[in-house]
Amino acid sequence: MRHLPRARLLALQLALLVASGALEAPLSAPRSLVWGPGLQAGVVLPVRYFYLQAVSSEGQNLTRSPPGQTLFRVVIKSLSPKELVRIHVPKPLDRNDGTFLMRYRMYETVSKGLKIEVLYGDEHVAQSPYILKGPVYHEYCECPEEDPQAWQKTLSCPDKEPQIEKDFASFPSINLQQMLIEVPKRFGDERGAIVHYTILNNHIYRRSLGKYTDFKMFSDEILLSLTRKVLLPDLEFYVNLGDWPLEHRKVNETPGPLPIISWCGSLDSQDVILPTYDITHSTLEALRGVTNDLLSIQGNTGPSWINKTEKAFFRGRDSREERLQLVQLSKENPQLLDAGITGYFFFQEKEKELGKAKLIGFFDFFKYKYQVNVDGTVAAYRYPYLMLGDSLVLKQDSPYYEHFYMALKPWKHYIPIKRNLSDLLEKVKWAKENDEEAEKIAKEGQLTARDLLQPHRLYCYYYRVLQVSSEDPSCLVECPQAKKWPESLLPEGAQESACGTLATLRNTLNAS
User: Fold this and answer.
1) What distance in Å separates the CA atoms of residue 226 and residue 308, rounded to the nearest whole number?
2) DSSP H/E element including 199
3) What's the CA gap between 42 and 53, in Å, rounded?
4) CB under 8 Å, gap of 24 or more: what pairs does 465-469 form?
5) Other CB atoms closer than 10 Å to residue 18's CB: what's the count?
6) How are strands ordered across the β-sheet holding 261-262?
7) Gap between the Cα atoms of 411 and 431, Å rounded
8) Positive or negative CA dihedral for 449, 455, 460, 466?
9) CA atoms of 317 and 357, how far apart (whole Å)
10) CA 211 to CA 232: how far, in whole Å?
11) Can you give the pLDDT at residue 173?
12) What pLDDT, on a 0 to 100 scale, did the predictor assign at position 89?
């Protein structure tokens, strides 16, 4: 019998594996797909990013990483050899499903433009090289787009945000005069955590109301980042820096509710919700020492589904009693649940009984198939990160919510569990017995979170809240009397006496 040459025999074996579905066809660099906001010069973000879908020579999207070491790489250079710029380009993030996330942070602006090469080995991928005609601005360039509509179109901002529409439905009109009088009295006492912002001519002014306003650095940084990218409308608003939403008046009450802006909403409050300070700050500081951000988490989701530990997992502080119950359940059912408290503050007397768990890196959470999301003082701000992983999230029923929850559906994107956790073990058992369905829900939740939580979508969301807030003409009222504004960030040489309304502030600035 004639023996086949070794190379031909290996090729035949590979073809049989591909045909049987045991192995996907070899990758084709030209047929692979590359897309995303990081390929557009006008999309200015702290970290620019785009995506790559590996496609086989047969034209099929790969659903697993190509075998062997990943050979994708990105090379970014200025179009002009005279412009030497510093650009940080980390390795592509393998999302373990045939897609890759490419990121880069610019530290200088290029006037001529950028050349982005996406390579697989030495072969160009898709339509590489990509040319971004300049100017291409870096994060700290004071270069706002003067046409907000054009800016929103460039970012592909959605026409509607259901949560924003729901939030502002409680405020058919905004009585700024009432806000200026009532907010300081109701929420600005010594224990308050309120900041009064004024935006005028794309400059930010603020004063703090209350003792606990240190977190204003988070609201400051995103507002300043926005002013560098687009002209913001003139308006005034109040931001709540505390954990709990504040406005509990009903719409039909007299006086009615006030539009306080918060990071977390609840079923019994009327606050207008913005993306949390946590995901906003991590987005702004990505690739600068912050490891858990909305992009990096996507390439650090642990082993493949089949190789994850079949247990539900939780680590966190003792900020809610149900978390203590979770640890007790874990002690009684270690085969189903691995839960531990990493720090005691609210229930210090329980530490001896329940023990203190060692800290674990967040990426290691995803060694487990199932993640338990239990509220902290309010909504657990880890939830968006859990959803971006590839584990199945079991979410506690909660009156609290973040800005993106409205788009998520139980049994489609996550598994709901009762507030008292009485059905948690039952749901874990269901997931173990219905592995294929559990994996499908985990994947659907991950894909939806990837879309909703893209960094450019956060900018769209912030701008939309400010835009809707400014649409009421009563936001531009005359101040009946001048008041001292001790922490106003007036330009140097300006008189530091303004009531906080735009009309008076305009006069103050013009007089200086």
Assistant:
1) 40
2) strand 194-200
3) 23
4) 465/164, 465/261, 465/272, 465/274, 466/199, 466/226, 466/232, 466/233, 466/235, 466/237, 467/148, 467/233, 468/164, 468/168, 469/168, 469/174, 469/233, 469/235, 469/237, 469/259, 469/272
5) 16
6) 203-209, 194-200, 235-240, 261-262, 272-273
7) 11
8) positive
9) 10
10) 28
11) 84
12) 97
Of 292, 260, 266, which Cα lies nearest the Cα of 279?
A: 292
What pLDDT is attached to residue 172? 84
Query: From CA 232, how far away is CA 505, in angstroms rounded?
Result: 16
Ordered alpha helix ranges (H), 336-381? 351-354
Helices 216-227, 277-284: crossing angle, 10 deg rounding: 50
> Cα–Cα distance between 339 and 499 in angstroms, integer?
52
Of 94, 131, 88, nearest in space to 112 by CA: 131
Sign of torsion, CA 176 180 185 188? Answer: positive
Question: Residue holding tokens 């602006």?
Answer: 109
Compute the distance between CA of residue 504 and CA of residue 512 in angstroms, rounded to an integer: 13
Mean pLDDT, 10 residues at a time, over the chain (512 residues)? 48 44 73 98 98 96 79 95 94 95 97 97 96 96 97 96 95 87 91 93 92 94 97 95 95 92 97 96 91 93 96 97 97 98 95 95 97 96 97 98 98 98 98 98 98 97 95 51 39 37 47 39
Helix axis angle for 455-470 and 277-284, nearest 10°, is: 120
Count Cα neighbours of 454 within 13 Å in the Cβ-side half-sphere: 23
Residue pair 46/286 in contact by the 8 Å Cβ criterion: yes
Q: What whole-number distance in Å separates Cα of residue 374 and Cα of residue 351?
A: 19
Residue 70 has what pLDDT? 64
